[in-house]
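Entry type: protein chain
Record version: 2
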Amino acid sequence: MTVRFDPQGQIVKNVTLIGDLEPARIKELLAVAGRCPVQRLLTKGASIVTVPTVVARPPASRSRTLPQ
């Protein structure tokens, strides 16, 4: 399965099925693919929480010699 955005901003999911499959089996497999956790999250809508992580800059390095 591959997923991409099309020019209109829609999510396009390509599902590759291999084998000589009857139409009913294809329909069943696509239904299963539609119930994957990622698709459920996207179609339900997801809340996005942004957690900032601030990392202090290390002090300017000074020429130091390592203890021996």
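Comment: The chain has a mean pLDDT of 81.
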